[in-house]
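Title: Prediction job returns without error message
Component: structure pipeline
Severity: low
Priority: P3
Assignee: unassigned

Description:
Job completed but the reporter wants confirmation the result is attached to the right record. Sequence as submitted:
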Amino acid sequence: MRTITVVGHGSTQVVPDSAVLRVGAAHQGATLAEALAGASSAGEAVVSVARQHVDTARVASRDLSVWPAHDHQGRPAGFQARQGYTILCPDLAVAGTVVTELAAAVGDRLQVDGVTLEVADSAAAEVGAREAAYADALARASHLAALAGVRLGEVQAVVEGGAAGAPAEMGIGAMAKRDVSFEPGESTVSQSLTVTWSVT
């Protein structure tokens, strides 16, 4: 049986409506115990602020790191400790509020690794992208069949590939004394399908 196999691509635009905050609580101390204690107290402040705005299950500890600190001349200057956290925010307004309040509560011991804007439910967008991918595959196959002087028959196989586009990533440097807000913009959800038709 003769066949034609093509790869179709499709995409839809979505507006991010939630955010993932990745922050750290850091402290430098003269001793290892002091560094750990400082990072721990800063971490408690991070968790306390976050839980005022999101469910407890949305706040998670990540890596804990401790390393020797050095001054500008390379001389030993105690230790630095850092505890990382991930905070899942249900909407962008909450994310901005959390970052603003963390800056006030934790101060210079706060480190913001980044903010990822996401779509909480991308199922509908994925369906649209998949439909567009199939339409693209059909158009490509029909064109190839016409060029080859054959007609498309029944679909023999469909293999799904591709994935949602990369979420919008935002980095934050020094925290200014003002409220933090995020603009969602648009993100692309993409899908690809490999479709095989019989030809006659």
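Comment from assignee: result matches the submitted record. Confidence is low (pLDDT under 50) at residues 162-178.
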